[in-house]
From TrEMBL:
Keywords: Retinol-binding, Vitamin A. This is Cellular retinoic acid-binding protein 1. Residues 7-136 form the Lipocalin/cytosolic fatty-acid binding domain. InterPro entries: Calycin (IPR012674), Fatty_acid-bd (IPR000463), ILBP (IPR031259), Lipocln_cytosolic_FA-bd_dom (IPR000566).
Length: 139
């Protein structure tokens, strides 16, 4: 079980997001909008069941899944693809990892906590985006 990812987390840094979105085939207009967003993650967990919400002033996105079980993800409002997804809890480094198998090669993400920060690494096709979020204790 990783250190709890639960809570409300506000983005404080976002490195290489543009290249990650470009790898997903997102056009320049949408990338410009997305780059300005301060994303918020709201993560809930009960046992193996997770809900991860990504919130912004522009669009929201949510997934729910059980770790260790394959599911279908439709990335509605993002790159709008249907992908097969599997998340796992990896004990090394206490990470929650996700492999997103579909048209795009080497696609997935990993979440982990260090101190009061939530880390997210998103990868697609050789591009790696690194996002860091600070715990919002008021929510
Ligand atoms: C939902 C807020 C972002 C809205 C951006 C809108 C358009 C840009 C289109 C595609 C960009 C690709 C990804 C957006 C980046 C972050 C959103 C969710 C990333 C993700 O997979 O989060 C995981 C891990 O926390 C859970 O879904």
């Amino acid at each position: 079980m990783p250190t709890s990812l639960c809570g409300t987390w506000d983005m404080i840094s976002n490195v290489n997001f543009d290249a990650y979105m470009n790898a997903l085939g997102i056009g320049v207009y949408l990338r410009k909008i997305a780059l300005r967003l301060k994303l918020r993650k709201v993560i809930e967990q009960q046992g193996d069941q997770y809900i991860i919400k990504t919130l912004s002033t522009f669009r929201n996105y949510a997934i729910s899944f059980k770790t260790g079980q394959e599911f279908e993800e439709f990335t509605k409002g993002l790159d709008n693809r249907h992908i097969k997804v599997r998340t796992d809890v990896v004990n090394v480094g206490n990470k929650l990892t996700c492999e997103q198998v579909g048209e795009k090669k080497n696609r997935g993400w990993a979440h982990w906590v260090e101190g009061d920060k939530l880390h997210l690494e998103l990868h697609c096709d050789g591009e790696v985006c690194k996002q860091v979020f600070k715990k919002n204790v008021n929510e």
